[in-house]
Amino acid sequence: VAEPATAYVASPATVPTLPLGRPAAAQESLWQPAAQGFRPLRFVGQLFDGYLLCERDGQALLIDQHAAHERVLYERLQAERAARGVEADPLLVPETIAVSAAECAALVEHADRLRDAGLEGEAFGDGAYLLRTMPRCLRDRDAGALVRALAAELDASGASDAARRAVDRVLATVACHAAVRVGQRLGESQVSALLASMDGVPVNAHCPHGRPVAVELRRSAIEALFQR
Ligand SMILES: [Zn+2]
Predict the structure, then answer these.
(1) 173 CA from centroid of ligand 1 (Å)
(2) Residues 67, 89: contact at Cβ < 8 Å?
(3) Ligand 1 center to 227 CA (angstroms)
(4) Distance 223 CA to ligand 1 centre (A)
(5) Which residues contact 12 (CB under 8 A, 6 or more apart)?
(6) Which of 82, 132, 134, 225 would you label with 97, given CA atoms 20 to 30 Å apart?
């Protein structure tokens, strides 16, 4: 029980330098880097079809599969947007989505931000929005559910929302809708791909929803359960 913490969180050498102006405590709870990266972790199994139990060198990690995937997608979308705009595909048939007048106004007001995120559309009569393109990462997903979520989000954030924050919100919502869900059984190859992709995104970047992605299960805490 008195065993020293071997975990990455406790070792200063493994905690990367934080960007100026961001509190360390807040950052660490968002995305805890695995000591040697996520890719080399041994995948033990999936709990409740939503959490990935992994271990390495006396360190055990529980990863929220949705939060992790969402985070990776969000960082990729931000990089795409900055480089050349988010990759988008035209819908074969533009989709008419019912929204309230206020939500429609919010969508129209943020049309440029939405286009940057791969969503081109326009107001369509009373109480509807016509969507013409979808971000490529959302192929086959429910366009109506996404647009209604975006409309509600943008409407709630109001006109005073800075453009930059509106873009972040839009990309976070797109990433959320594209990510694997809790309740989805993942195969080993899908888990390996997810773990590898987690090493490819910046550890200290802003997290879309601010929830933790990975938590450490301390060996000493597990042993204490068995009074070892
Ligand atoms: Zn989400």
Answers:
(1) 7
(2) no
(3) 37
(4) 33
(5) none
(6) 82
Task: Report H helices in the chain.
Answer: 24-28, 65-83, 101-109, 111-116, 143-157, 163-178, 188-198, 219-225
Q: Which residue has the tokens 């009373």?
A: 126
**CA 162 to ligand 1 centroid distance, Å:** 22
**DSSP annotation of 4:** P
Query: What is the tens place of the pLDDT at every residue in 64-105?
Result: 999 999 999 999 999 999 998 899 999 999 999 999 999 999
pLDDT tens by residue, 172-221: 999 999 999 999 999 999 999 999 999 988 766 655 667 788 888 888 88
Q: Which two tokens stand for residue 124?
A: 């369509």
**Which burial class, exposed, middle or buried, applies to 103 when counting CB atoms under 10 A from its CB (0-12, 13-18, 19+)?**
buried
